[in-house]
Amino acid sequence: MDCNCVSDLLIPPVPALWTPGIAFPDWAYKPESSPGSRQIQLWHFILELLQKEEYNAVIAWQGDYGEFVIKDPDEVARQWGLRKCKPHMNYDKLSRALRYYYNKRILHKTKGKRFTYKFNFSKVVLVNYPILDMANSPFFLAQNHFNGGSTAPDCTPEAIQSLFPRLPDSGRGTSLFDRGTAAPGPDGDKLRLDAFPFLSTGAPCYTKPPSLLGPYPRNPPFDYPWGFNPYLPGAFSLNNCPKLPPGSLYPSQFYPNPLQSSLSQLPHPFSSLLPPGEAGGGERGAAGQTGGTNGTAGGQPVRLCLPPYPGSLLMGRTDIGNGASLAERERGEANPPGTGLSFGLAAGTGTGRQSPTERRGGVKQDPESDSDLEITDLSDSSSDNENEHDFNIRKASSLASRSQIVLDGKKRSALPPVSSPPATAAPHPLKSLMPVSPPPLSLPLSLSPSVALHEKHRETETLKMIHS
DNA sequence: CTCGGAACGA
DNA sequence: TCGTTCCGAG
């Protein structure tokens, strides 16, 4: 009744640039990109709840990638109502709102499972993170064959930091893009990747430019630019990921912390950012919003959810080059046999579908996108849900280029240091948990052959785009 | 439970 | 644009 829209909030209604505690990048709230969405959106909210451990009894990740179950519909609705100051909110209404996401393909229903929905992270991420050039990500670079097992920087704290400059313990408040001294500009925020473990995790698997794909005769048709496809086995997985416990339902990435006892609660790409102290996660209220003006402010402590263990962000990327195993595991549970997903790259024959359960025959064709969530072109329009895993490398590249176009001049600076210092340190799963030290602010791109090729490829693609 | 149309509000 | 509220239908 009192519409305590603040005290009860998981996240306070914040200004555009505020970085939510759950570690969503500012752009996640797409204040700029989405004129109409000044307020928190339902899916954000859901993500938040999912992020908070204390709500695990109410809503939690479960099942496939991005799949979550609303265990207590009423409570979720109540929370939502609280947030939106809609005392009469109920699950019926909330679910209606949720259903609108179907068309946008931000979410979709897991048929046959009550109160179970699935996030289409690719959408969420891509749409909101168009400029991220995963290809340049250390993760990305690190895990390709080219590195031939060399000290894969992807697992190193440095690497992580380069991608997630504002990681928990760092407290440096530097952001992915505004750190470069170079005029961060207001836009810088949009590029910040405060934390999107799953994003980084997935990308590496497919963002590889053809040149890095090596010997594969043909580019598997992927739909996800950057190769991020949560439905694809390995989507959330990086090559370097600790193996999951047998029988685990989630990809390793879902385990922010291997030591975590309640595995059932972990599964989710964001949880890895839960601050140790915030285990309870309830405190966010006050501290959280206090200085919460915006995460951009350099030095402003970001209200990121630190991982239970510093660096847990790294979790999930420790078993180098084993995309296969992961893929296999996942295939076992969700993919039809035959979907060769060997190299994490999801050699997706384009058929593998992750959740046989669902299959909205003809999901209303993307109502011409509209939603700010719409990304450039995922071309996945045709294939929603399960089929979205099809990935078109070319497209990915293309998109990447596009991103850069968008980035424009900032392209360079906007990108995180491509190659973090060769993480000398061996990415030991636990070791990676150690607090990391700030990465060199500006590292020259490591021009490994792969990178060079990649660069070249990108340029080419960019040109193509421009010409077309 | 789930779905989606429709009207309506901010 | 993003819900919210209603509601009939499967």
TrEMBL record:
Residues 260-304, 329-396, 411-441 are annotated as: Disordered. GO terms for molecular function: DNA-binding transcription factor activity, RNA polymerase II-specific; sequence-specific DNA binding. It holds the Pfam family Ets. The gene is erfl1. Residues 278-298 have a biased composition (Gly residues). GO terms for cellular component: nucleus. Its main location: nucleus. Residues 414-435 have a biased composition (Low complexity). It comes from the Eukaryota. Keywords: DNA-binding, Nucleus, Transcription, Transcription regulation. This is ETS translocation variant 3-like protein isoform X4. Residues 368-385 have a biased composition (Acidic residues). It comes from Cottoperca gobio (Frogmouth). It is found in: Nucleus. Belongs to the ETS family. Residues 40-120 form the ETS domain.
